[in-house]
Amino acid sequence: MRRLLLALPFALLPLAMAHAADAHDHDHEHGSLPPHEHGVGSLNVALDGQTLELDLDGPSMNLVGFEHVATTDADKAKVASARQQLENPLVLFSLPKAAGCTADAQELKSPLFDPAPEEGAAKGEHHHSDIEAHYAFTCSQPDALKTLDLTQFFKTFPGTHTIKVQLIGSTGQQSVEATPKAPTLKF
User: Fold this and answer.
1) Which of 8, 98, 117, 127 could form a disulfide with 144 if both were Cys (CB 3.0 to 4.6 A apart)?
2) Tally of domains within the chain
3) Which positions carry the signal peptide feature in this UniProt record (predicted)?
């Protein structure tokens, strides 16, 4: 537990730096957009006792194939399908059955899920659009949680080529990149 608490600030450092950079960009009315790389997403994983939390963030291009507000029936169907897939985290993130994990909470955020027009959209400005998902699980046998398999995620969302993972577990912190050819993370 002490190791987990000591590692937490280091795991959150990239998030704090990204937030500071994002806040800096908002200070400049005509500044450039924050870094946004298509095909690449991020996943923060934290296991503390029986609680497992996953925070996923990636460009909507990776998950639905576009970043604009869905206006056509085809685009609306893609957004609805992606949302439905994201609402099934136990399918997307293959956790060992022996760990006995159940989904307790989830939250999905994206401008695509809220079709209210964005400021500047009428002017034809380009906005990067991300999809964020937060999941909380309770695992009755956390010691059996040895791996997290992202194979199904990569199959469901083939526009995602790399997921940069920050993982905190009982053995400490690690930073890895998951790809379709190397989709399994070890705790």
Assistant:
1) 98
2) 1
3) 1-20
